[in-house]
From TrEMBL, chain A:
PANTHER family reported for this sequence: ABC TRANSPORTER SUBSTRATE-BINDING PROTEIN (PTHR30290:SF83), PERIPLASMIC BINDING COMPONENT OF ABC TRANSPORTER (PTHR30290)
CDD domains: PBP2_NikA_DppA_OppA_like_8
Source taxon at top rank: Bacteria
Protein name: ABC-type transport system substrate-binding protein
GO biological process: peptide transport
InterPro entries in the record: Peptide/Ni-bd, SBP_5, SBP_5_dom
Family statement drawn from the similarity comment of this UniProt entry: Belongs to the bacterial solute-binding protein 5 family.
Subcellular localization(s) per the UniProt record: Periplasm
GO terms of molecular function: peptide transmembrane transporter activity
Domain Solute-binding protein family: start-end pairs: 77-424
Signal peptide: 1-25
Keywords assigned: Signal
UniProtKB/TrEMBL annotation, chain B:
A Pfam match: BPD_transp_1_N
Superkingdom to which the source organism belongs: Bacteria
Every ABC transmembrane type-1 domain range: 95-307
Protein name: Peptide/nickel transport system permease protein
Assigned protein family: Belongs to the binding-protein-dependent transport system permease family.
Organism whose genome encodes this protein: Rhodovulum marinum
GO cellular component: plasma membrane
Length: 533, 317
């Protein structure tokens, strides 16, 4: 190479290094969360989807993860700490190959033995590392797991209690903490909470309970495309919606979760950006199917669904909703092609009610459980009043039983037959519907009738049960998707719920925030974000 | 004086015991389940039962109370169910932040309220009296969380002069008496001060007005005492009652700022309490209420003693 060439080369290298330095110095993003506290930092997070979003997939990884790179299509599972997995001929034993060269933030390597240690942390209450707080969050997420074993440093087997093809979805919940870090911190989870160590793209460097957590990039992260570009990500619990909005508009944070709908026009007017997208969430009335419930009549269920003018409900929510066409959002890969369309058709709804024996002189009285607020409940009071008025148009008179959110969860767990629900024939509940179990199985499985599970309405149907069994025994992902679609089609065709709306996970942010891609998922990728000067 | 103090201290014990029983029972009566805060909503009944046993929530209430009070007497307030952190550090950290806010509000409210009250009492039935009365009624009547929101909109959102939330750039743990931190205190303290300004002004106005009509005041004037010296006597006579009102107000400021702390995201005891209520975090709820109640009892004790010191007649009652 000529001297001139060498000179250009050196100049180009220097420029690249300089630009690289600039690229890594992309400012601080301050996020106002809806949570009242910093989610549990030790590994398995609390605070539901928000906890996983901000303290889960940021600091930690799971064996199998959700693809969060696209806003245009539903998220699917992708390799995480495991690069490949397969089930044996017995349909019980799964083998996982771990990613080579992955280290925790403390420098210790990820091995199959560490994964086993993490599973014991949640499932084996005799193990030294068993942590009841993490177990409370994680154990119920992996009901299929019977045993597990490290075959070699990078090979792991997990055996299920029965054939269960949903295991990969279950494992997407389970986050891996560092064994070496726990040992270095006197095997004390309280100390780990202050100095956690995961394999994720972000490292926690500062943690003030209830006030703030500061994350910085893990520049050694195994997936180069997910190495964060920001200097810092600051998480601030701001549970009060008005306080969140004021903090954003006064420049104290750059991003808020779930802005109150009535503040959105003011924010947009002041140049703030509202980001939203469909995601696996729904807002429904879960119907009682106990003997004597009026919702046992499919004509009444269909009529109620067709009596709701969902488009007219949109202004109430500032347009931030996706009108329901079924239990899953219309963009879901498992939506299928149901025959029944629950769209607004008052005449058809009235005709169905008349066929069922109801009319202006023979009105139907129903009792509905609702709460005035709650996680993911959107604006429950005006929305339920809207439904009440809509149903009155088809001669259904709704009497509300209003309970506080914490109590509502208890009544949901108790089920429709529990005396505490005082004969209510429906419960207004919002659901996390991201995987086959949370999305479809848990609501209507005969084996999960409340209080043993979350089948609140005591629904049990042989055909549906057969579909659930098929989901669990169909190991080919494409074929499994087809079964899931068929299951959802039955959900819709039988009008098994009052399908109302889907939330769109609105978040408001400063115009300085660039590069965010809102995935159709409860979790998000913060690595692509930069801040304009 | 010492006998009086001992007698008052002895009376505190049954009050504290009563408070502990009420704290424990009140939070148990509320519907809801503390496990909701620490388990996924779809955790099975079996998993819930295991966790319930782990936290001792499956034991009969009297046993739970005995365990709680036993630990309390040994200085152990237990651990928060929702966060796993010790209740004592959670509560005392939060109370410290609330105390900072309450004392700041008191520093604003008490002198202003006293000055306005004297002004109105001295110039009774004049425009000044009517203006102060209108102001104090407004102060007491305006919902302070609403006022807080309005102040945030004006001074944080529109003017950008003051921050709208938090206890400083690095949180309350790195609190310092510098402008960067103190500017976070201004809006919540001013908002919180509005009600006690009204109450203190109203009380002092009534006291000053009444005392000024007493015979001894006329006698003082007749003796040729200056207006300022007469007012000093009036102030001394009004002090005992005004002090007791201020003491109670300080108690209210500490425990009654839930809404203000929520509006300003101030990490105090009110904020802690409201989260504990929503999460049914029983140990945290019991601990916070107990500490606040005991603070109230202590404030009353201090006020009683101070009153007795100012007015020795009180010791004889």
């Amino acid at each position: 190479m000529s001297k001139l060439g060498k000179g250009f080369s050196a100049l180009a290298t220097a420029a690249a290094v300089f630009c690289g330095t600039l690229a890594q110095a992309q400012g601080t993003l301050r996020v106002g969360m809806t949570a009242a506290d910093i989610p549990l930092t030790t590994g398995q997070t609390d605070q539901g989807g928000e906890g996983m979003r901000f303290m889960g997939y940021t600091v930690y990884d799971s064996l199998i993860e959700w693809d969060l790179t696209s806003a245009d299509k539903p998220s699917v599972l992708i390799p995480g700490l495991a690069t490949e997995w397969s089930v044996g001929e017995d349909e019980l034993t799964w083998t996982f190959k771990l990613r080579e060269g992955v280290t925790f933030h403390d420098g210790s390597p990820l091995t199959a033995e560490v994964v086993v240690w993490n599973l014991d942390k949640l499932l084996d209450d005799t193990s030294e590392q068993y942590d009841s707080r993490q177990a409370a969050q994680g154990k119920s997420r992996i009901p299929a797991v019977a045993s597990y074993e490290a075959v070699d440093d990078l090979t792991l087997t997990i055996t299920t209690k029965a054939p269960d093809a949903t295991l990969p979805y279950q494992l997407a919940w389970i986050l891996m903490s560092s064994k070496a870090n726990w040992e270095a911190l006197d095997k004390d989870w309280e100390k780990v909470a202050l100095q956690p160590s995961g394999t994720g793209p972000w490292k926690l460097t500062e943690f003030v309970p209830r006030e703030r957590a500061v994350l910085v990039p893990n520049t050694e992260y195994w997936d180069e495309t997910r190495i964060p570009q920001l200097d810092e990500l600051v998480l601030i619990p701001l549970p009060e919606p008005n306080a969140r909005s004021a903090a954003l508009m006064s420049g104290q944070v750059d991003w808020i979760e779930a802005p109150a709908p009535d503040t959105i026009p003011a924010m947009e007017g002041n140049g703030f950006v509202i980001s939203s997208n469909a995601y696996p969430h729904n807002w429904t009335w879960h119907l009682s199917r106990l003997e004597g419930s009026p919702w046992n009549d499919i004509r009444v269920r269909k009529a109620a669904n067709m009596a709701i003018d969902r488009e007219s409900m949109m202004p109430l929510l500032g347009g931030l909703m996706v009108p329901a066409k079924g239990f899953l959002p219309p963009s879901s890969q498992w939506f299928g092609n149901p025959e029944f369309d629950p769209s607004y058709d008052l005449d058809a709804a009235r005709a169905l009610m008349q066929k069922a024996g109801y009319g202006p002189d023979n009105r139907l009285a129903v009792k509905a459980l609702i709460s005035p607020s709650g996680s993911g409940q959107m604006l429950p009071l005006p929305m339920n009043e809207f439904i009440q008025q809509s149903l009155a148009e088809i001669w259904i008179d709704v009497d509300f039983m209003v309970v506080e959110w914490n109590q509502m969860i208890n009544l949901w767990r108790a089920g429709a037959a529990d005396p505490a629900v005082e004969g209510a024939q429906s419960i207004n509940f919002t659901y996390f519907i991201q995987d086959p179990f949370t999305g479809l199985i848990r609501h209507l499985d005969c084996n999960l009738i409340a209080p043993n599970g979350t089948n609140w309405g005591h629904y049990c149907d042989d055909e549906m049960q057969g579909l659930f069994d098929q989901i669990k025994t169909t190991f080919d992902p494409e074929e499994q998707n087809a079964v899931l679609q068929k299951t959802h089609e039955k959900y819709v065709n039988d009008a098994l719920f009052l399908f109302v709306t889907h939330d769109v996970a609105p978040r408001a942010m400063s115009p300085k925030v660039k590069g965010f891609v809102q995935a159709q998922n409860w979790y998000q990728n913060f690595s692509s974000i930069t801040m304009d000067e | 004086m010492l006998t009086y103090l001992v007698r008052r201290l002895i009376l505190v014990l049954p009050v504290a015991f009563g408070v502990s029983v009420i704290c424990f029972l009140l939070v148990q009566i509320a519907p809801g389940d503390p496990l909701t805060a620490i388990m996924p909503v779809d955790a099975t009944a079996e998993e819930q039962a295991v966790m319930r046993a782990a936290y001792g929530l499956d034991k009969p209430l009297p046993v739970q109370y005995a365990i709680w009070i036993g630990n309390l007497l040994q200085g152990d307030m237990g651990k928060s169910i929702a966060t796993g952190r010790p209740v004592a550090s959670e509560v005392f950290g939060a109370v410290q932040n609330s105390l900072l806010l309450a004392v700041s509000a008191a520093i604003i409210a008490f002198p202003i309220g006293t000055a306005l009250g004297f002004l109105a009492g001295y110039f009774r039935d004049t425009w000044a009296d009517r203006a102060v009365t209108a102001l104090s009624i407004t102060g007491v009547s305006v919902p302070n969380y609403w006022l807080g929101i309005v102040l945030v909109i004006i001074f944080s959102v529109n003017l950008g002069w003051l921050p709208s939330m938090g206890a400083g750039p690095g949180g309350s743990q790195s609190w310092a008496w510098d402008w960067a931190h103190m500017r976070h205190l201004i809006l919540p303290a001013v908002t919180l001060a509005v009600v006690p300004i009204g109450i203190v002004a109203h009380t002092v106005r009534a006291l000053a007005g009444d005392i000024l009509t007493m015979d001894f005041v006329q006698a003082l004037y007749a003796k040729g005492m200056s207006r300022f010296d007469v007012l000093r006597h009036v102030a001394r006579n009004a002090a005992a009652t005004a002090l007791s009102v201020m003491g109670l107000q300080l108690g209210y400021l500490l425990g009654g700022s839930i809404l203000i702390e929520a509006v300003f995201n101030w990490p105090g005891s009110g904020f802690l309490l409201s989260n504990a209520i929503f999460q049914r975090d029983l140990p945290l709820l019991q601990g916070t209420i107990l500490v606040l109640a005991l603070f109230f009892v202590t404030m009353n004790l201090i006020v009683d003693v101070a009153q007795a010191a100012i007015d020795p007649r009180i010791q004889r009652t």
